[in-house]
Amino acid sequence: MKTPRQLLDGFSARFGTAAKIYRAPGRVNLIGEHTDYNDGFVLPAAIEFYCWAVAAPRNDRKLVIHS
After folding, report:
1. Is 5 helix (H, G, I), strand (E, B) or coil?
2. Burial class, 22, CB count within 10 angstroms (exposed 0-12 / middle 13-18 / buried 19+)
3. Distance CA 22, CA 55 (A)
4. For the chain, what are the domain ranges?
5. Contact criterion met (CB below 8 Å) for 7 and 19
6. Is the model's pLDDT at 67 over the cut of 90?
7. E-assigned strands of the chain?
8. Is 28 in contact with 47 (CB distance < 8 Å)?
9. What would the mean pLDDT of 28-55 be, rounded to a whole number?
10. Distance CA 27, CA 63 (A)
């Protein structure tokens, strides 16, 4: 897995601009899969895996995603 610094450097190399980096924890549902958005009960727990996103605003209002 790439480090946050590698993600920022890769973004800068690809798009030619500085960016901000964001991280969201992964989670597991111990009970209640697909019930939270139907007012049901859930018991989620954060895990030590993350989803990383690197982003910067554009002047042309386009959204460009690279994975």
Report:
1. helix
2. exposed
3. 8
4. 4-55
5. no
6. no
7. 20-29, 44-55
8. yes
9. 90
10. 27
